[in-house]
Amino acid sequence: MNYNLQMRLPLSVIALLFSLNGSAQLDSVSVHPLLKQHISTLASDEFGGREPGTKGEELARNYIIKEFKAIGLSPKGENGFLQPFNFTKSLQVGPKSKLIVGTTPLSAGHAFYPLPYSANAAAKGQGIKVGYGINAPKLGHNDYTSDFLRGIDLKGKIFIIDAATPDKDGPHSKFAEFADLRSRIDTAIKYGAAGVLFYTSDKEMKEPTLNAKMRITPCAIPVLYMVRAESAILNGTAPVQMDMVAEIIKEEATGNNVMGYLDNKAATTIVIGAHYDHLGHGGDESLYRGEPAVHNGADDNASGVAGVIELARYIKEKGPKNNNYLFMAFSGEKGLIGFRTFHQKIYH
Ligand SMILES: [Zn+2]
After folding, report:
1. Ligand 1 centroid – CA 276 distance (Å)
2. Contact 256, 53 (CB under 8 A)
3. Cα within 13 Å of Cα(96), Cβ side
4. How does pLDDT run across 138-167, given as a tens digit for each residue?
5. Hey, what CATH topology would domain 11-87+253-347 get?
6. Exposure pattern of 67-82 as b/e (b: 16+ CB <10 Å)?
7. How many CB atoms lie within 10 A of CB 239?
8. What is the distance in A from the centroid of ligand 1 to the CA of 279?
9. Share of the chain above pLDDT 70, in %
């Protein structure tokens, strides 16, 4: 991921995020030996893909600190060179999670799971299908005013919503802008939903997951997803008695930005940074499918960090003195958590 970002800060600090992404093999091109050393170290298997909150992240930041120190930068974090931040590392299906459809209990974590939008909450009552749960006035489509729902009091019911779109056209659907599950939940709440159970009638659709990296503010009601393989139990349109509990257990963790400062006693500071974390052993963000394996991330973004380190050395030795320089290696790229932490601390 690249971030080309320039912003003006109150103290005339200019931040420039540095990125040197490329797909060339290190061996096939001529690379400065120090750049090569940084990239090879950061992207080594030993560093385990540098996932935030892991040993690999720690190894990587210690390496960067060692380099910053050797160059002669001074620490500018809250904890020496480090600027820590907390984040949600994972979301797990809690043992209290429950779904009973009619008289059939379903298996939590297999047949169904809570979605990240869900509150840790329970709902019990009549489950009723409300189509796609989409109200799209400009497309003349509102599932809640369908003939099927006419005259039915929806208040306090559990809404069973097809997470597909009416035209089953995935991301190309003309309903795409109304397809976001969170906005469908908000619509359901407006129509009186006590809980929401999503499923999908679209065989092509990628099923939603309980993914911690979505940065979602939960809503106030339980929201479950029933996996495609189990959703035959929802066939038919008759209302059905339902009992649901959503419990999500959050695993919190700490990540760290690295901040090294070159003080030229100037009025302005230039920030040069790149993210040093990567995907660890894969996961939802990875394009790789298969057994978990180290994602080395040489070009995402060990190369950018190598560039920051060597730029720091160059500027310290030969650079102009009319600015101060803050060299940063960010962690928490997904959701820009590390960068947001830095940004927030400058502005607030
Ligand atoms: Zn990236």
Report:
1. 8
2. no
3. 11
4. 999 999 999 889 889 999 999 999 999 999
5. Aminopeptidase (3.40.630)
6. bbeebebebbbeeebb
7. 15
8. 9
9. 90
Which DSSP helix (H) or strand (E) runs through 294?
none
Cα of 301 to ligand 1 centre, how many Å? 5
Strands 240-246 and 223-226: unpaired
**pLDDT at site 215:** 63
- Rounded to a whole number of angstroms, the CA Rg of the chain reads 25
Q: pLDDT tier at 218 (50, 70, 90 boundaries)?
A: confident
HSE (side-chain half, CA atoms, 13 Å) at 1: 17
Tell me yes or no: is domain 95-246 CATH 3.50.30.30.
yes
For residue 65, give Cα distances in angstroms to 164, 200, 282, 317.
Answer: 48, 48, 26, 18
Which pTM was predicted?
0.70
Record the tokens describing residue 208, joined without a space. Answer: 């939603």
What residues does each domain of the chain span? 11-87+253-347, 95-246
Query: How far apart are the CA of 52 and the centre of ligand 1, in A?
Result: 13
Residues 6+ apart with CB under 8 A from 94: 114, 120, 247, 248, 249
CA of 66 to the centre of ligand 1 (A): 23
Distance 132 CA to ligand 1 centre (A): 35
One-letter amino acid for residue 77 of the chain: G
> In the β-sheet with 104-106, what is the strand arrangement from edge to edge?
104-106, 98-101, 240-246, 121-129, 158-162, 195-199, 223-226, 112-114
Distance 305 CA to ligand 1 centre (A): 11
Q: What is the DSSP string of 125-187?
A: EEEEE-TT--EEGGGTEEGGGSGGGTT---TTPEEEEE-S-TT--GGG-TTHHHH-HHHHHHH
